[in-house]
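Run log, item B.
One chain of 266 residues. Sequence copied directly from the ordering sheet:
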Amino acid sequence: MNQRPRLFLVITLLFFLLPVLILAAQSFSAPWRFPSGSGLDWELGSYEQLLQSPMLWKATFTSIWIGFIVLMLNVVIGVFTGKALTTVPLKGRPWVEALLLSPILIPVLAIAMGLHIFMIRAGLADTVLGVIIIHLVPTVPYSIKIFHNSYQQIGRAMLEQPHILGSGFFRQLFTIELPLLKPALRSVTFLTIVISLSQYAITAIIGGGRVLTLPLVFFPFLESADASVMSAFSLWFAVIPVVMYTLVEAVILLLPYSRLPWRNKR
C-alpha cells in the first residue's frame, strides 16, 4: 500500500518534469528535431535574441503590475462578498450566487466587446486601468466562489465570537479571518495570476495594442518558427507566475499563526 503513493508521485513528477526538461534543453540549443539523428548543439542564441527584444521587458513589468493589482482587487472583492453571502440573511441567495458566477458562463469576448464601447466613452480604452477592469471579469467569479466556500467552512458562529468579545472589524479581519483563509488566498493567487497573465484577446481589444503585455509579445514570436526562441520565451513566461506566487506566499507568511518562530515570538 505504501508503494502506490510513491509510484503515483514518481509518475506525476515524470510527466511534469519531462516536458520542462525537454523545453529547457531546446531553449539552450539550436533548433533540433527528434528524428534528425544529430545531437544537441548547445548555445545561448535563443536567450540573446529574446532578451534583446525591447518590448519584452516592458511587457514583463506591465504584466506583473497588472497581475498584482488584479490579484489585490480579487482578494478584496472576494473576501467581502464571500463573507456577506455567508453571514447576511438574504432572500433569493441562489439567484444572487448564480448572478455573481454568470461572467464565467458568458463568453468573455462578448463581454469585452460590449464593455469596449462603454470604456471608449468613459476614457478607459487603451489604458492600463481599462485592462485591469476587464481582467476582473474572468477572475472575480472564481475568487468569490472560493472565499464563499471558505467562509462557509469557518462557520457563522466562529465569525461571531470575535465580535462578541469586542474585537474591531480590521483586527478581526487580519488576526482571525485571513489566517483561516490562507488556503483560499493561495488558490485565488494561483488562479488570478495565471488567468490574468494568459489573457490575449480581451487585452488586445481593451488595451488597443497600447497596453503591452506578455501574450501580445508572445504571439508575434510564433511567426519566427524558431523552436529554440519559442522554448526560451515559454520558460520566461512560466517563471513569472512562479516568482509572483512566491512573493505573495512570503506576504501570507506575515499573517498571524504562521509557522515562523520570529513571527509568533511574544
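Observations after the first pass:
- The chain has one domain: 54-252.
- Residues 54-252 form a domain with the MetI-like fold fold (CATH 1.10.3720.10).
Flagged for discussion on Thursday.
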